[in-house]
Design brief:
The protein contains 14 helices and 14 strands. The protein is α/β, with parallel strands linked by helices and about 350 residues long. Helix 1 crosses helix 14. The longest helix has 17 residues. Bound molecules: NADP nicotinamide-adenine-dinucleotide phosphate. The site of NADP nicotinamide-adenine-dinucleotide phosphate (NAP) has 28 residues, from helix 1 and helix 14.
Length: about 350
Amino acid sequence: MKNYNVGIIGATGMVGQRFALLLADHPNFTVTALAASSRSAGKTYEEALSGRWAMTVPCPQNLKSMTVYDATNDIDTIVSKVDFVFCAVDMKKDEILALEEMYAKKECPVVSNNSANRKTPDVPMVIPELNSDHIKIIDSQRKRLGTKKGFIAVKSNCSLQSYVPALYPLDEKYGVEKVLVCTYQAISGAGKTFERWPEMIDNVIPYIGGEEEKSEVEPLKIWGKIRCGKIVPAKKPEFTAQCLRVPVSDGHMAAVFVTFKNKPTKEEILKVWKDFSGEPQALSLPHAPKQFLNYFEEDNMPQTKLNRDLEGGMAISVGRLREDSQYDYKFVCLSHNTLRGAAGGGVLLAELLCAKGYMD
Ligand code: NAP
């Protein structure tokens, strides 16, 4: 892979800080621009983050003295310094749509963690191990935007990064018909820490705005097919979801119930998970986990605290596979929401796009 200069839009936020850490020692990406809102603009990254650094390891030394730009007003300076940007901002949907399109139209590709463009039919929403072929839609998107290089690619919501990877390869072989999923989601998914959200200590909140719809609808785009310049979402599997906020710092757990068209044996399911790998593994991308789906035999595993950091937080942990009385099987899955589910997933998607020549 060649070397690229990259920017982080939303660099001061929870996901932006993860990007800063992941990119600080990336073999091919160098951070040359940091941007956030006008509240942070003009300050050094260290000043802008004062009292807000939420990671357990210190802020990368080389980024501390960089000046934070205003993501909108300083766009020309930013695009002149980078080959592409990562974007993770807390703004209104129409503002994010406008911001991401503005960068793309200035020939600066955007790898986005925001939900605003996930439903745009010619914007690929990619979990690189599963639907890497969807990046071909970028050619159609570039025609719509009138760009040669600029485009927007997004990653999916963090809630589904645990259970969709486990179901997708099973569908290919056995046909997944129906899925019921309950997610147990960490507070960093709301951009929060316990210090900033003390109400979450010793508490569960049975509502996360918009999350259940995303958890049911977004998988169908991942399963979708490219037709006439659009990604047409699949009709199946059918998903129903409940999403709960739980008192955990990082890591989203999911309890999954699934019914198949052709019910496999438990051994067949375990073999599919063990053998599964995707394009990131074939291409040996820097952030690709060696083993994507990891099954734990112990009854009390996986555990959020013990397993969320597996393979740098990029691998999926699965456990407790057993037959169910109403569905065919039930099991649990775990993924790190700000790594695989956010910044890490964004970095892996960018690595895939670089390896396939879309950033040149
Ligand atoms: P966050 O911690 O609240 O950070 C928000 C970021 O957006 C900050 O850098 C903030 O800059 C910036 N921002 C706000 N208004 C802006 C504006 N007008 N122009 C430019 N930048 C602006 O939020 P987060 O948790 O990192 O989430 C960011 C995005 O990622 C959201 O769309 C979220 O849905 C998505 N996401 C988050 C997770 C997760 O696990 N946290 C997972 C997947 C996706 P200032 O510091 O200057 O205000």
